Amino acid sequence: MSVDTPRRTFAIISHPDAGKTTLTEKLLLLGGSIRSAGTVKGKKSGKYATSDWMEIEKQRGISVTSSVMQLLYKDVQINILDTPGHQDFSEDTYRTLTAVDTAVMVIDSVKGIEAQTLKLFKVCRMRGIPILTFINKLDREGKEPLDLLSEIEETLEMETYPMNWPVGMGKRLKGIYSLSDDTIEKYNDLHEREITPLADDKSLADYERETLEEETLLLEEAGNEFSIEKVRNGALTPVFFGSALANFGVQSFLDQFVKLAAPPQPRKASGEFIDPERQAFSGFIFKIQANMNPNHRDRIAFLRVCSGKFDRGMEVILSRTGKKMKLNQSHSFFASDRETVDTAMPGDIVGIYDSGNFQVGDTIVGGGELLQYEEMPQFPPEKFAKITAKNALKHKQYHKGIEQLVQEGTIQLYKTPYFEDYIIGAVGELQFQVFEYRMKNEYKVDIEFNHMTHELARWVTKGTVSDDMTDSRKMLVNDQQGRSVLLFENDFALRWFTDKHPDVELSSGWDIL
Ligand code: G4P
């Protein structure tokens, strides 16, 4: 793709089953990046079974080739970053959001906002990422559109602005009305796109027309004003209705997406904002995928280009160490293949073969100043396990491995006071599996896991917590910075604690990690 083509880089935030994969596929089809549906989902089609990535990846069907996808639409290069969900939900899912300029929130019209959407939304909010909303599954009997808008406004404290409005839903679905140009996109069983001016439309019954008029009048009078500034700073979300499965409203969404999504944004590094227009190349590593091939220890580091131009084979400097290196092996990712990339521009994601030089959050520059992009945030873990080495004689490798993998961001480490037992924390179960696998394969240490029932971590921000305030349902540990953290089994244990100790203030970590 040409260096002059504008870039738009986004990720989908959604709860499993809301339709992320289906929508992604339809978008790729529109951009001509894939020719048939069912190509993206390795999990079900088994398309990626031949990939030579680590065993877990094979079993799960997670593939680097679906980590980043590209499509060209209306002369805009769109980079889609995958946000793994289900049992693959991990810190990487969150970290991916640090590398995008826009998020698309997919909501199931039947279920409304669900837990995982909310978690991912919080990361977008923290980073001020603009959000476009696609309310999916309009072909099913879902919640009332007005109720869905209120749910977004109330739960997420974000203004909404509907870009189109449904006429009916489920079996009664007739179409979506475009508020900007007074046209209706009709829903038909053939899934063919048909748009007519509302005035010319003869298919709506009187009551359907009346309901539409009433609802759009209400939106005009009581709804929010559109403001691109508010969209860009995440205060207002444009809302689109449609059905990914029926390919209904998807193209209309994409037409608007290329206009509304944010271009590559300036990013903070070493105390200043680095403009994408800046000539010198710079970027940061937001994810490292390890052990592509068990015979080699290589891994792929995912680099987000932030400024300047990336050229394959160019000499770069790793800011953290000052080490110079040549990036000869670099790849871009398409839906079905990995391709060698020769150049990449701000907004693009490049995969770089790494023999262990990089850490998540590293900045690399093409010369000039040694910038350091803002530190990668840590995210509150929800799964915990006490660990020991099965063979106590291997304690050297055990400590070395843990130190390395913690540094790489594979897992988070906590220690109990006094005995300094090791407790590892993760956002998702997959991280434990990756940790176990890598400890065994790279450090030759078998790990004994003692899975804990605790699910909530709370940092003590005020007051002191002593051992006598804890029990099996709430446990006191220290994080790597030596901060006190309480692990709770559930909300009930947390509430019980806060009621009993009003002087102790706790934070869920979203704001302090
Ligand atoms: P995810 O990636 O967010 O987890 O969701 P995915 O696209 O896999 O969709 C989850 C299920 O919802 C799939 O059905 C999919 O076909 C269905 N779906 C997606 N979009 C729509 C829509 O607009 N309308 C309706 N009615 N269904 C939709 P499944 O039976 O679980 O899987 P599959 O066997 O069809 O792949």
UniProtKB/TrEMBL annotation:
Alphabetized UniProt keyword annotations: Cytoplasm, GTP-binding, Nucleotide-binding, Protein biosynthesis
UniProt xrefs under SUPFAM superfamilies: EF-G C-terminal domain-like, P-loop containing nucleoside triphosphate hydrolases, Translation proteins
GO cellular component terms given for this protein: cytosol
Per the record, the GO terms for biological process are: regulation of translational termination
- Sorted alphabetically, which InterPro entries does this protein's record hold? EF-G-like_DII, EFG_III/V, G_TR_CS, P-loop_NTPase, PrfC, RF3_C, RF3_dom_3_sf, Small_GTP-bd
Residues that hold GTP according to the record? 14-21, 82-86, 136-139
Q: Where in the cell is it found?
A: Cytoplasm
Q: Which Pfam families has this protein been placed in?
A: EF-G_D2 (PF22042), GTP_EFTU (PF00009), RF3_C (PF16658)
What's this protein's name?
A: Peptide chain release factor 3
Question: What molecular functions are annotated in GO for this chain?
Answer: GTP binding; GTPase activity; translation release factor activity, codon nonspecific; translation release factor activity, codon specific
What does this protein do, in the record's words? Increases the formation of ribosomal termination complexes and stimulates activities of RF-1 and RF-2. It binds guanine nucleotides and has strong preference for UGA stop codons. It may interact directly with the ribosome. The stimulation of RF-1 and RF-2 is significantly reduced by GTP and GDP, but not by GMP.
User: Which family does this protein fall into?
Assistant: Belongs to the TRAFAC class translation factor GTPase superfamily. Classic translation factor GTPase family. PrfC subfamily.
Q: Which organism is it from?
A: Salipaludibacillus agaradhaerens
